[in-house]
Structures are given as structure tokens and as C-alpha cells.
Amino acid sequence: IAALKVLNDTGDGTFDAIFAGVDFCVDYAEQFNVKIITMSLSDKREYSKETCPKTYGNRVDKALFAGIFVDAASSNEYYRNGISFPACASGIVSVGATHDANVTGQLDQLTGFTNRGQNLDVLAPGSLITAPSSHKGNTCGAPNKDGFGSCEGTSMAAPHVAGVAALLLEINPSLKPFQIEQILKITGKPVFDDRTRLTFPRVDALAAARFAANP
């Protein structure tokens, strides 16, 4: 795993710096065997497919051309008609969050905070997720004695999709980024969102793995 720091300690930064990180992954793809990029960050704005900024499209295209699958969190502003950047960018698989615990009777339903719209690609568990926690932010509960807390957000969901993509590439290394995306979508469990009247696929690791083994 290559972890690239593209924001400062308070979570602020520029998209020039973020996409410089994407460029690094492309430039060193062979040296570090980079096959997947996952980004849990956004500008917190609402975009449709048509209004999404095109500024960094060539940087995403270079990553895809290098055979690198790219996903990003759709962000957590409760939007109903679009998602945030860079998740909305063409070629990036946008990820929303579902409930992973049946604490409120909402197991496998979209979380309220998930940005969604016609351009949301897939869903993955994003609440409540056990993850390392420093309790510096408001997405994770206070850490236990082992340093883990109960976290939520589309930033919890995006790495799940990256993990499934890695599993598919382990099974079938010849898969291209667009093929991984299609497998995730066609094997995912349909989840109906009553707020937008749209249906999104929640990734199913086992079903996706079986399909990758026998496409």
C-alpha cells in the first residue's frame, strides 16, 4: 500500500496537490505495482454529470490508460441531485455509503448523509465501521483501548470498493479498470433509495469474485 499525503493536518489542500498524487501513482505504477487509487476527500459541492468540473480529466485518463482503477467517496452533505468532486469526474467510480449495522432497522440502506444522484456509481458499507480512530474528527467515536472507534462516512465506503477491486485483480490480473467497474455494478445487490427513487448497486465481494474467476 502506497499512502500519499496530499492534504495538510487539518484536512485542507488544493486539487493541484491531490492530482499531483494521482500523477505520482501513474509515474511509479510499475515500480510500486500501483493498480488502484482510492480517494476519501471532496470539495463538498453538488454536481451532476453535466456540471462536474473537467479541469483534471486528463489526469484521470492517464491513470485509467495506465490500467489503474480509481474510486472516490461521493461525500457527506446529504445532497440528492448530485455528488461532489472528484467523485463526479468521468472515469472515477463514485462510492456512496450504506448502513452496515442493523441498529436502526436500516441494514443495507443508504445512509442519510450520502451524496447521491444519477451520477452515483456504487455503494459500500460506510456506517458503522470499526476503524482506527484518534477522535480528532466527528466521523469516528472515541477510540477503545486498541485505538479503534466506530466510524461513518463515504470515506469509510470508498476503501471497501478499493479492497474488492484488489480482490478481483488478484483473481484475474488482466482486468481493465472499466471491466472492474462493470463487474462491481452487475454483481452488486440492488438497493432502492426512496429519497431519489433511484436504485444503486451495493458491492458484493463474493459475487464479484465468482464473476471475475469465470467472466
Features:
five-stranded mixed sheet, 7 strands, 30% helix, alpha/beta
Summarize the structure in short:
The chain has helices spanning 15-27, 29-32, 57-65, 154-171, 177-187, 205-213, and strands spanning 36-39, 69-73, 93-99, 122-132, 148-152, 189-193, 198-202. With 215 residues, it is α/β, with parallel strands linked by helices.
What oligomeric state best describes the polypeptide chains here?
single chain
Helix-strand string: HHEHEEEEHHEEH
- Please report which band the strand proportion falls in: under 5%, 5-15%, 15-25%, 25-35%, 35-45% or over 45%: 15-25%
Let me know the largest β-sheet. Answer: 5 strands, mixed
Average pLDDT rating? 93
Runs with pLDDT <50, length 5+? Answer: none
Strand order of the largest sheet: 1-2-3-4-5
Number of contiguous helices: 6
Radius of gyration computed on alpha carbons: 17 Å
SS-based class: alpha/beta
Tally of DSSP β-strands? 7
Shape: globular
Percent range of helical residues: 25-40%
Question: How far do the termini sit from each other?
Answer: 27 Å
Describe this structure in words.
The two termini are 27 Å apart. 30% of the residues lie in helices and 20% in strands. With 215 residues, it is an alpha/beta fold. Helix 1 packs parallel to helix 3 (57-65), helix 4 runs parallel beside helix 6 (205-213) and helix 5 crosses helix 6 (205-213). The strands form two sheets. The protein has a five-stranded mixed sheet. Helix 3 (57-65) links the parallel strand 1 and strand 2 (69-73). It contains six helices and seven strands. The radius of gyration is 17 Å and the shape is globular. The model has no long low-confidence stretch (mean pLDDT 93).
